[in-house]
Design goal:
The chain is mainly alpha-helical and about 270 residues long. The protein is built from 8 helices and no strands. Helix 1 runs parallel beside helix 4, helix 5 packs across helix 7 and helix 7 packs across helix 8. The structure holds zinc ion. The site of zinc ion has 8 residues, from loops.
């Protein structure tokens, strides 16, 4: 039997995700240019026309205007549509996993920041420190909440597990960065990647942040290999690393504890 209440809740969460995604687009465009994310109102990057509420309905505006500006008809980047849909699906998936719970809000908070990081790193090859700090602030709030609430992300680990997570994962990446700097005299590993694992480990704790690092290296390595084999990228060319960290974190949040249990089971 179809549960209409459940479907309504899922739909509401999906739509909330789309609306938040439309705000994430603003952040993605303005933060790398060091512009305010509140003012001025959104305008078309081609003709400068200030966008009306009807132009700002997530997904629908894009589809109805066939991906073109209503005023000057220049094409709008599909990034807008992509980020909105990704945010909608992301929040829906987190809800299906955690229901309405502290985990839902904290996982949603972390993944919101990471979705923004995903697209900024893809476009500009940087992870803005401001986003890392906003992430750490949320992670510290979760750290405090955990003294009163046993969450299923930490899955029974001790309260200091997030701290060990930071020390191991960010520590490991920092070590690689330093070694790379000494041997090759260049930034082999971006410091942004080292830093972004601080909020991630705060939210995920030790086990899941280590798993995230493994998933990141696995998915990143596989993608790099495919890009080199298909000659889309040269061996030496830089590939942004954060998108893989974001995907790894998302998989860990949804399936991490199951993956770990399954892995320990086959040992
Ligand atoms: Zn325009």
């Amino acid at each position: 039997m179809i549960d209409f209440v459940q479907i309504t809740v899922i739909l509401l969460i999906f739509i909330t995700g789309l609306v938040l995604g439309s705000f994430f687009n603003v952040v993605i465009c303005r933060v790398p240019e060091k512009k305010s994310i509140v003012k001025p109102r959104s305008s078309c990057p081609s003709c400068g026309a200030v966008l009306m509420p009807i132009d700002l309905i997530p997904v629908l505006s894009f589809l109805l205007q066939k991906g073109k500006c209503r005023y000057c008809k220049s094409p709008i980047s599909p990034q807008y549509l992509l980020v909105e849909l990704a945010a909608g699906l992301m929040f829906t998936a987190i809800y299906l996993k955690y229901g309405i719970s502290p985990e839902f809000f904290f996982a949603g908070y972390l993944m919101s920041i990471l979705l923004i990081v995903f697209f900024i790193d893809l476009k500009h090859m940087i992870i803005p420190d401001g986003l890392v700090l906003v992430g750490i602030a949320g992670g510290l709030a979760f750290f405090a909440v955990r003294f009163f609430y046993n969450d299923s992300i930490l899955d029974g680990e001790k309260w200091y597990s997030p701290l060990i997570g930071i020390a191991s994962v960010s520590g490991f990446l920092l070590l690689i960065a330093v070694i790379g700097m000494v041997i090759y005299g260049q930034d082999a590993m971006g410091m942004g990647d080292v830093k972004i694992f601080i909020p991630i480990a705060l939210f995920l704790g030790f086990k899941l942040s280590v798993l995230t690092l493994f998933l990141t290296i696995f998915i990143g390595g596989l993608t790099g290999l495919v890009l080199i084999i298909t000659k889309l990228k040269k061996r030496k060319s830089q590939i942004p690393f954060a998108p893989f960290i974001v995907i790894g974190t998302f998989i860990s949040l949804l399936f991490g504890n199951n993956i770990i249990q399954w892995y320990l089971g086959i040992l």
